Amino acid sequence: MTFLAADLHNFHDVFRPLPATDGRFISFEGIEGSGKTTQIRRLEASLKAQGLEVLCLREPGGTPFGEQLRQAILTQGEPLDPMAEAGLFVASRAQLLKEKILPFLHGQPRHVVLLDRYLDSTLAYQGHARGRPVAPLWAMHQFAPLNTLPHTTFFLDIDVETSLARQAARGNQKDYFEARQRDFHQRLAEGYRALAKAHSERIVTVDARRAEDLVFADLSAALRARGVL
Ligand SMILES: Nc1ncnc2c1ncn2[C@@H]1O[C@H](COP(=O)(O)OP(=O)(O)OP(=O)(O)O)[C@@H](O)[C@H]1O
Ligand SMILES: [Mg+2]
Q: What's the predicted TM-score (pTM) here?
């Protein structure tokens, strides 16, 4: 137990930066309806038009094994134990890194991975939103291939009202997470904001309540300003 408390602030030490000769790794985070999928599609088109090779993936999923886990999680009725939930996501993530992300980026500086949800989703959903500590969740990521951080993470920040309104407009049946109560989504949004504040060198917060074009302009400007692309 003590190693977790002592090492928590230094946890980034165990993360392995991708070599400069590799491609770029960008993740997208935010509550349901914040526009992750919408912005990933736009960025994919824009990067491809610049001649870059782009691989878009989502979590959980992205590999045959991960897609099976995705089905298992999202069709689950009653809330799972948070550690059971975390274990499923982490299993999907490890397989995605090994099978898809790391091979695609290796030695290919003009390759870009755009990933819909990653590590911060685990911290926000299985940690903050469940009222659980994040230290054990960080600890699950200290070994390869899980100790890989994106070059940039975009946190698309919207309020819960906007999220609910966009979900209602979509009109689909609610999945495992969408069915949680309003206060769960509120804690989730607050968890994401706390993560963005604590990891401001990696996480770029974008006000995603605004029109799609304005959000996209901010994402593009941030990538240029940070020299990611
Ligand atoms: N900036 C925006 N303004 C208004 N509506 C938006 C904006 N961005 C996305 N939308 C709409 O909101 C809905 C949710 O967007 P999207 O599916 O991209 O969100 P998401 O973050 O991927 O959600 P989920 O986590 O549920 O997959 C869609 O119907 C989309 O067209
Ligand atoms: Mg989506």
A: 0.93
- Give yes or no for residue 34 CB within 6 A of ligand 1: yes
Q: Contact at 8 Å (CB) between 149 and 26?
A: no
Host domain of residue 21: 2-225
38 lines ligand 1 (CB under 6 A): yes
Q: State CA 44 to chain mean position distance.
A: 16
Q: pLDDT tens digits for the chain (229 residues)?
A: 344 444 455 555 688 889 999 999 999 999 999 999 999 999 999 999 999 999 999 999 999 999 999 999 999 988 899 899 999 999 999 999 999 999 999 999 999 999 999 999 999 999 999 999 999 999 999 999 999 999 999 999 999 999 999 988 877 778 888 778 899 999 999 999 999 999 999 999 999 999 999 999 999 999 999 988 7
Ligand 1 atom closest to residue 178's alpha carbon, by position in its atom list: 26
| Residue 31's CATH number | 3.40.50.300
Which residue matches tokens 């994919």? 44
Q: Structurally, how many domains does the chain consist of?
A: 1
Q: DSSP labels for 59-117?
A: SS-SSHHHHHHHHHHHT--SPPPHHHHHHHHHHHHHHHIIIIIHHHHTT-TTEEEEEES
